[in-house]
Amino acid sequence: MQSLELFEAIEQNSCQRLGPATMVLRGFAVPYVRELIPCIQVITAISPFRQMVTPGGFTMSVALTNCGALGWTTDRRGYRYTSIDPDTGKPWPSMPKVFAQLANAAATAAGFDNFQPDACLVNRYAPGARLSLHQDKNERDYDEPIVSVSLGMTATFMFGGHERNDPTVKVQLNHGDVMVWGGVDRLRYHGVMPLKDNPHSLLGSQRINFTFRKAG
Ligand code: MD6
Ligand code: FE
Q: Which domains does the chain have, with CATH numbers?
């Protein structure tokens, strides 16, 4: 192995602590990717990606859908979880077993046992799409962690503090990386910088993110 390859191989399986209860598990989802990608087609055939409107009246640049018993939505009336997709009038597609297995394994690796998500938000970023700083606070139980899986193009994630104006650290999230956070970090502000167009070999000019939660 060349030294650069060796470095990448180590990098694939490293983990990085971003906070007292926040870990980035580098490459943790790589062994699951072949099974995950076809699931995206299955989910979006039932509940297509759509650009939702925030309570403030802005159309999000990120396109969203969900799978699992509950799905996160936003419109002019606010943010909430629903069991029915408001666009189709039907339940969200069920969560593929491999999704729940990956989320549970990643949570365990990061020190959160018994994570059983009931919601998986699926985000699609085209070049230029971004997510402004926000807190995740529509879930019932803040003791449960969040597991976030990145696929496709690399994004720059911003990780802040408990106040909107706290300084942020930037971290690159690559194809296959899984971020797990919870505990004292659960309500920290975070966001995603505008996505740069460096096409990915499997997914092309997009980034897909799965965010697993126990919402209900
Ligand atoms: C994203 N993620 O990575 C957006 N929220 O595309 C999130 O907003 C997020 O990655 C809470 C926990 C982890 C996350
Ligand atoms: Fe978030």
A: 2-213 (2.60.120.590)
